[in-house]
Amino acid sequence: MHIDLLGGFALRVGEEPVSVPVSSERVLAFVTLGCCRSAVPRCLIAGTLWPDAAEHCAFANLRAALSRLGGTGRRALEIGPAELRLAADTSVDLLQARTLAHRLLDRNAPAGACDLDLAAVADLSADLLPGWYDDWLLPRAEEWRQLRLHALEILAERFIDARRHGEAVAAARAAVHADPLRESSQACLIRAHLAEGNPSEAIRNLRHYEQLLHRELGLHPTPRLHRLVARAVAPASHGRHAGRAE
Predict the structure, then answer these.
(1) Rounded distance, CA 180 to CA 176, Å?
(2) Which residues contact 159 (CB under 8 A, 6 or more apart)?
(3) Directed axis angle between helix 42-49 and helix 22-32, to 10°?
C-alpha cells in the first residue's frame, strides 16, 4: 500500500490506484500526518474532522468513513477499538521526502549520489495536499513548505559546488516557484546562473524579482542581492573599459 499526499491525495496498491470517498481520504490523511507511525485516538480524529457534529455523530461519521474504505483501503491502516495507526507496510511519499529534506539539511552528512539528482528536486517540488483548506492541515502544509524550501536551496548550492549547473538552476527554480517573494531562493537562482556563466540571466532574474517585490509588497531587494550580481558583472565591465582605453 502507498499513500501520496504531495501534489494531491492518492491511495495505491503497487501502481494500481484505489478509489476512496473524500471523507475516507481525510481519515487516511489525518492518520498519516500523525506523529510518525504512532497510534491516533479515534476521539481525536472524530473531533478534528467533524468539529461541528455532536460527539456521537462524529464517531458515527468516522465509522462510516472507515467502512467506505473497503477491504483494500483498510489495509493501509491498523484499526483498533480506540485508535488507528498507519499499517507498517504502507509507504507515504511525504515521509520519504521529509527524510530526504532532513538529510540535505544536515550539513555534517555527505550527500549521497541518490540525493543529488533531478528526482530529489521532483520529490521536494510538490505542496502538501494542495486545494485542501482544513484548519488541521494548514500548519502541516506550511511546515512542509518551509522544510522543502530550505532543502531545495541547499540542494541548489550543492549542485553549484559540483558544477552541475543545469540541475542547480532546476532546484533553485523549484524553490522560487514555491515562493516567488523569498529572497534566499532568488539568490540561489542568481548564483546558479552566475556559476553557469550567464550574467544576463542573473540580471534579468534580479530585475524581475525587483518588479514583483515592489508590486506585491512595496519592498525592494536587500543590498546583498545587488552585490551578488555586481561582483560578477564588474570584472567584465572593467575589461570592456580597459579595452577602450587601449
Answers:
(1) 5
(2) 116, 165, 167, 168, 171, 192
(3) 130
List C-alpha distances in Å: 170 to 29, 98, 155, 185: 29, 19, 10, 12
Q: Nearest 5°: phi and psi at 41? A: -60, 140
Number of Cβ within 10 Å of residue 72's Cβ equals 14
Mean pLDDT for the chain overall: 91
75 contacts 1 by C-beta, under 8 angstroms = yes
Cα distance between residue 59 and residue 165, in whole Å: 54
Sign of torsion over alpha carbons 35, 39, 42, 43: negative
Torsion over CA of 32, 37, 43 and 45, rounded to 10 degrees?
-10
pLDDT tens digits along 39-72: 999 999 999 999 999 999 999 999 999 999 989 9
